[in-house]
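User: Predict the complex with adenosine-5'-diphosphate.
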Amino acid sequence: MQDNYILLGVTGGIGSGKSTVAKMLADLGAQTIDFDILAREVVKPGREAYKEIVDRFGEGVLDSNKEIDRKTLGEEVFNSTEKRRVLENITHPRINREFYQQLESIRSEHGKCVVQAVIPLLIESGMRELFHRILVVYVPRDVQKQRLLKRDDLSEEQAEARLRSQMPLEEKCEYAHYVITNQDSLDYTGKQVKDFWRQLLLDLEGLGG
Ligand code: ADP
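Assistant: Here is the predicted structure with adenosine-5'-diphosphate placed in the model:
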């Protein structure tokens, strides 16, 4: 049976404008599942992943409220592929489970609809096949770096290190069904988002259900 909804994967690079574009799509009517939020939820105290992370990485990754300090944990795994893999093996299955639960609940509530999943590492983590459409939010590297410096208050080296650790955006664009360029005004980005949304609605209309 053909699906009666469109599952859209929204990705890009750090600071390229995924959240900005996702908010515009949500305002137009897309249902949204944000993987950054899921990633925060699965490591909350009381959740399975919380205990496993503390067992594996020690209490040094907790803040004064005994919650996992994602920044400290992020720094701990940033330079170690091995540690990153350990952390991903703990969190990814839980994030995926939450994702499918949210998807099911959105589908039972809204039926025929567009669901966007906002996923920073969609392409790197081999999730492409899950989606009917993939949208990449693109900016040139120098703009990306400037926005990152401004938003996250990073040093030049820290921003460079983050950019270097990700697949270049040009390469991500090769996997996209659709690319929105976000280096100009928000108005211009909004116009592209509206054009894309119109196409999605036409595609949705063509589906059964
Ligand atoms: P991501 O979710 O991909 O990390 P954001 O949507 O948070 O990126 O955007 C990164 C930063 O750039 C934010 O501070 C955001 O307000 C800003 N920004 C996004 N799009 C534009 C734009 N077209 N013009 C100027 N600033 C922008």
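The chain has a mean pLDDT of 95.
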